[in-house]
C-alpha cells in the first residue's frame, strides 16, 4: 500500500513482542540515545508502540502493536529502518478551518523532530491502549488539544480514515473540520502555546494550496493534501 487509501475500519491488536532488532543491538541503541540526549536533553526513553503485520484489505486496516522503548524507535529511525517487518503507524488530525485552509504545527527545537511541519500527531504510547486494542482516535483528540488547545466541541471528525504509507511510516489521517476560519484557529492556538512553559510547537502554519508546501513537510502530509484537493476538484 502506498496510498492515500480510504480506511473504513481499524482492527488493531496489542501483544507482547521481543523485538529482535532491539534485543540484538541493545548496547549500540543505548549509546546512540545517550549521544542524542547531549543535544536534545528533553528526550526521554519512555515506552512507545510500533506495529507489525500491517495489512489493508476491503477498507480495513489490520495490525498488531507492540511496546518498545523510545530509544529503540529512534535508533531504528536514524539507522534507516533496518527491520522492514515493523512500521511506525500513527494517527494525525488533518485540521481544517471553515474557509477550507489547513493548519499544521512546526515542531519546537527541543523535540526529536525539530523544525518538521505536521498535522497534530504523536507516536502511540501506553496511554492509547484501551483493553485489547489501541485507540488512535483518542490519540488524535489528545494531540489536538495538547498542541492547539482545541477540544472536541470545537470541531467534528470524519467517520473514516485515509492511510498514507511512505516506506516504514504509515500515517492515518483523520479529517477534522472546525467551525472557524483558519486564521482564527491559528491565533487561538498561538495563545494556547504562549501559555505553556515548553510548548511542543514553535509555530502554526496555514496551508491553502500546494504553493504553501514547505520542504519541512513530510511527503505523507503533502500527499494527503494533494489527494484531498484533487478529489474536490473532480467534484
Keywords:
235 residues, three-stranded antiparallel β-sheet, 6 helices, 34% strand
Name of the CATH first level: Alpha Beta
Helix segment tally: 6
**Gross CATH architecture:** Alpha-Beta Complex
**What structural class do you assign from the helix and strand content?**
alpha+beta
Stretches where pLDDT is under 50 for at least 5 consecutive residues are none
The portion of residues forming beta strands comes to 25-35%
Order of helices and strands: EEHHEEHEEEEEEHEEEHEH
CATH topology: Nucleoside Triphosphate Pyrophosphohydrolase
Q: Assembly type of the shown chains?
A: single chain
CATH superfamily: Nucleoside Triphosphate Pyrophosphohydrolase
Please state the CA-atom Rg, rounded to the nearest Å. Answer: 18 Å
Based on CA inertia axes, which overall geometry fits?
Answer: globular
> Into how many domains do the coordinates divide?
1
